[in-house]
Amino acid sequence: MHPIRKKRLTIVLFLVVGVSVAVALTTYALRQNINLFYDPSQIAAGEAPVDVRIRAGGMVEEDSVIRDPESLMVEFKVTDFSSSVLVEYTGILPDLFAEGQGVVAMGRLNGQGRFVADQVLAKHDENYMPPEVNEALEKAANKRASESGGQLETSAGY
Amino acid sequence: MWQIFHKLGSPKWFYGIASRLMPWLLWVGVALFIAGVIWGLAFAPPERLQGNSYRIIYIHVPAAFLAQSVYVMMAVAAVVTLVWRMKLADVFVKSVAPIGALLTFLALFTGAVWGKPTWGTWWVWDARLTSMLILMLLYAGAIALGRAIQDEKSSARAVAVLVLVGVVNIPIIQYSVEWWNTLHQPSTFKLTEKPKMASEMWVPLLMAILGLYMLFGWLACLRMQTEVLVREGRTRWVKELIQQGGTR
Question: Which end of chain B has fewer CB atoms < 10 Å from its terminal CB, N or C?
Fold first, then answer.
């Protein structure tokens, strides 16, 4: 390669590496702000501020959804399978909201460790399946569970 | 390899080869894209949780995929501009930047339309969505900077530097869903793993992506040819070409 071109190429490489390092350091410093939500473990560990608008995200725990028959109030636990946080919300939930599904709730953590949400967003995963395949998988899982004599586990959504 | 690279320095050679490639790119691209989209929209099975609304993936993912890879291509061309001072590389950057901006807009728009029924919101400031918005601003910046500087050479260099600086955003978009907590789900397609999608859903998606790639190639060739004609307007081969009535 021509020496001038070699020199230019070095400059270009330095430019890209320099910018990458700068951006990497900035995003590393801001990582807590870039994270859209706090995990239940972070909240349990006291990392999340109390009485400030934050987001909490995780899975809706199975059999934890309690709907108030009189109003639109719902109560559920959000878990990351190591700890969980109790969320209460008044309003209409998105269609994809279900036990075992991911959610991101926006609201405030009150003094008693309850999370009072004013917005609940559903999160969906990267797995796309037609309904029949899902049913077949569930059937297989149930069969395996009953053969091994264990508890029946119903899977997400239904 | 190097021979082709050096030939690419000649706008005339490029004009000829592009003319021969373009019909293939156009027709195979149209066939693949239309077949993929129709298969996806009408014949692929509905999704277990999202029902039919997931079908917007057949537009959203190809657009987002292309938006990112067009930027990577622009960055490669920017290196060529800065190191080898090849004019055609700058022609490429200037010609495809608007296409990239449009694709990014399409990805953001279809994402918002998809987000409303599934997540419950049009927009959240999560890392994936925000970095994608930055990508659109980078495209817009590259277009504006290129137009703002009159002198061809300095405009080429300025845009190339901007495009190169912006390339750090690409890995951020790609890995945002893994590095940070986001509302956006992780990638369904990974190079090393089987797609996390039923095959009757991802085959049409792949067709749509490949088709859109070819359509992009066609449009890029067309725009580059136009740009080459404008820039080389005073050379002999362009005058001869025009006297022949534009036939190649």
Answer: N
- Residues making up the annotated binding site of A for heme are 124, 128
Instruction: State the residue range of the domain holding A89.
Output: 37-122
ipTM: 0.72
Same-domain check for residues A27 and A42: no
Tell me the C-alpha distance between A62 and B145, whole Å. 54
**Cβ atoms of B25 and B217 closer than 8 Å:** yes
- Based on the domain organization, do A76 and A105 belong to the same domain? yes
Q: Is the Cβ pair B48, A130 closer than 8 Å?
A: yes
pLDDT tens digits for range B175-194: 888 888 888 888 877 777 77
pTM, 2 dp? 0.84
Nearest to B228 by CA among B19, B3, B52: B19
The token pair at A100 is 């075992």
Q: Looking at the domain assignment, is residue A157 inside a domain?
A: no
Number of domains in chain A: 2
What residue type is A76 in one-letter code? Answer: F
